[in-house]
Amino acid sequence: MHQVKLLQLIRIHKQGDTHYLHIMLHANEKTTYYWQVDRETAIRLQAITDFSKGYFYQLSWESTHRQSHITQTYRNESKNLGFICSKRYAEQLTQIQHAESTEQLEELAFLSRNLAFKQETSLSGSRKQRKQRKLPWPLTATFILLLAILSSFTCHAIFTNVNADSEKQEETTEQPIQEEPKPETMLPEDSMTSEEERAIPAVALDAEISSGLDEGMVALTFDDGPSDYSKQIVDILTEFGAGGTFFLIGSNMDEHPDSVEYIHDNNFSIGTHSVNHINFASSSLATQKGELQQSIEMIEAVTGEAVTLFRPPYGQMNEDTKQLSRELGQRIVLWNNDPKDWESRNASNILQQVKSQDVSGSIILLHETEATVDALPEIISYLQEQGLQLVSLQ
Asked: Where, by residue number, does the polypeptide cross the bilayer (predicted)?
C-alpha cells in the first residue's frame, strides 16, 4: 500500500508560460516530481516563499474554499502561511493524495519526473533520424561529375543575365528620378504623438495617512477590484485623459489576472486593499501582517513594480496597522468624498452624491460596479468642468 505522508515544496520553476512546483513526496520512499500548476497559484506561492534562506516548506493537503496553506520551518520554529489557490490546484492535490501506488502517480498528466523529459525525448529522436548514410564510391563519383556539368551551364546563364541587367541599369540611371513633393503639413513619424502617449497626471503622497489633496486636484479611486469592470473603467479614464488609482483585493486576482496587467499597462496606479478584505482594526498583528504583506507581493509579482499605497478595508485600522504600514513602506490612503456607490447601485444617485459635496481637493471613494461604470463619464465631465485636475496617486 502506497501512502504519501508528506508533500515537500523544493522550488518553483517557470519555463516559458508554464509554471512547475518541484516537489518531493515522502512515502515508503522519497520521490521527486515536477508538478505543472496554474500561473496564479504559482505566483501566490512564489510571493510567500524564500528558498534562499534554508527554509523547509511543506504543502498542506487541505484546500477548502479556494484557500490552502504551506508550513515554513527553520530549525525548531514553524509557521503556517496561507495562500489563495485555484480549483484546478485543489483537484490535482486530491489526486496526488489519493494515489495508491507510484504507478498511479506516474499516470497523472500534470506530474513528471524530469522537467525537460519530453523535450529531451524529441531531441534524441530527431538525432537518430539525422544519422547519415554513406553512398558507395562509384555513385559518389557519378554524382560529382553531373554537378560539374550543371554548374558550367548555370554559371554561363548567370553571367549572361548579369551583363544584361547591367546594361538595363545603365540605361535607367541616365534618367533622373523625380521625387514627389511632400505636403508641408507632414511630420516625421517620430515626432507624432498619440492619445496613448499622453502622460497621466499624478501626485505623490508624502504623508503616512492621506484623506485629501491640495485645492484644484481630485483623485478618483476604485476599490474591490480587479473585476469584470476594471478594463471598462480604464478605458473611460483613458478616453477623458483622467488619472485613476485602483485598490485591489488579492483574492480577486485569481479570476481577473489580465485586468491587473491591463491597469498597469495603461499606466494607472495600483494599491493594495488586503487579500480577503478583513477588518484590520479587529485583527491581530500577525493576521494583519499576513494580509498586507501577501497582497503586496501578489500585485508586485504581476506588475514587477513596488506597491506603496494601502487602503484598509472599511477605512478601519489601529496602531498596529499604522506601524505595520511604515515597516512595509506603505502610505495609507483614505477618502473625504463618499458617493456611496456601494449602497445605491444607481448611476444618477452616484453622480448627484458627487455633485452635492465639495470636490476640490477630494479623494473620491468608488467601487468597481456596473453603476459606477455607467456614472463615470458624467462624473469626470462634471469634475473637468469645474477646472479640476484628475490625478493618479503615487
From this structure: 137-159
Which amino acid, residue 131?
K
Please report, rounded to a whole number, the percentage of residues in the chain having pLDDT higher than 90. 53
Which tens digits make up the pLDDT trace of 17-28? 899 999 988 877
Amino acid at 93: L
Is residue 22 a contact partner of residue 10, using CB atoms and an 8 Å limit? yes
Can you state the angle between helices 347-355 and 370-385, rounded to 10 degrees? 30
> Do the beta carbons of residue 103 and residue 113 sit within 8 Å?
no
Entry field: residues in the chain: 394
- By the 8 A CB rule, do 227 and 368 touch? yes
Separation between Cα atoms, residue 335 and residue 313, nearest integer Å? 12
Angle at the Cα of 345 from the Cα atoms of 277 and 375, rounded to 5 degrees: 105
The pTM score is 0.54
More confident call, 216 vs 131: 216
CA distance 332 to 271: 10
DSSP assignment, residue 282?
G
What are the residues facing 203 on neighbouring strands? 393
Per-residue pLDDT tens digits for 168-195:
444 444 444 444 433 333 333 343 343 4
Which residues have CB under 8 Å from 332's CB, separation 6+? 208, 209, 210, 310, 311, 312, 317, 321, 322, 325
